[in-house]
Amino acid sequence: MIRAWGKNVLAHRVAWMLANGPIPEGLVIDHLCRVRECVNVKHMRLLTRGENVLAEGSESLSAINALKTHCKQGHEFSEENTYRPPGVNQRQCRTCRKAAWKVENARRRKVKNMRKPEGEVEKTQQPATGAMCDYESMYDQSKVDEEARMILMHGQMGPSDMEMEDDD
After folding, report:
1. Cβ 38 vs Cβ 29: under 8 Å
2. Is 23 part of a structural domain of the chain?
3. What is the mean pLDDT for each group of 10 consecutive residues in the chain (168 residues)?
4. Residue 29 belongs to a domain
5. Whole-number Å distance between alpha carbons of 58 and 54
6. What separation, in Å, do the N-terminal and C-terminal C-alpha atoms of the chain show?
7. Residue 158 domain-assigned?
């Protein structure tokens, strides 16, 4: 950064303005050499911010993700298999999204089935140990609600996570 025209300005911008005039509004300098400190105007061009982010050789996450042709599970980002959420500049694999919803719905059903009508006592298998016990002594509604919240937030709970505190 250097002092020019009464204010601090990045050196490559000063070099561009001295060689080519002012930088038009809405445009930014793209370093073709990918060296941000470079002040050689032959290594620079003007682009919009979006073009600069996606420019060839860009190391931005947006550019890296834009080059991906398949999701993490190997499904192709085709027009039919790509979901673009409204108002957000991103894409999701429809196949993986559908699978995630199936898992989430199964978890919700499991949590819903854990809740029993008040006063009903039934023998059930304890999830953590597999031991048989009656439902009412195993859970009260506040613990079921907390467990459901944890399952929805963090996925399926393991045996160590299922241990409940005594209210003594």
Report:
1. no
2. yes
3. 78 91 92 87 90 79 81 89 87 89 86 66 53 48 58 51 45
4. yes
5. 6
6. 66
7. yes
Does residue 114 contact residue 106 with C-beta atoms inside 8 Å?
Answer: no
Contact 16, 44 (CB under 8 A): yes
Nearest Cα to 145, choosing from 125, 115, 110?
Answer: 115
Cβ contact 46:25 at 8 Å: no
Please spell the DSSP secondary structure of the chain, one letter per residue: -EEETTEEE-HHHHHHHHHH-PPPTTEEEEETT--TT---GGGEEEEEHHHHHHSTT--SHHHHHHT--B-TTS-B--STTEE--TTSS--EEHHHHHHHHHHHHHHHHHHHHH---TT---EEE-TTT--EEEHHHH--HHHHHHHHHHHHHH-SPPHHHH------
- The tokens for 22 are 């002012």
Any domain includes 49: yes
> Distance from CA of residue 56 to its chain's centroid?
24
| Rounded Cα gap, residues 160 and 167, in angstroms | 18
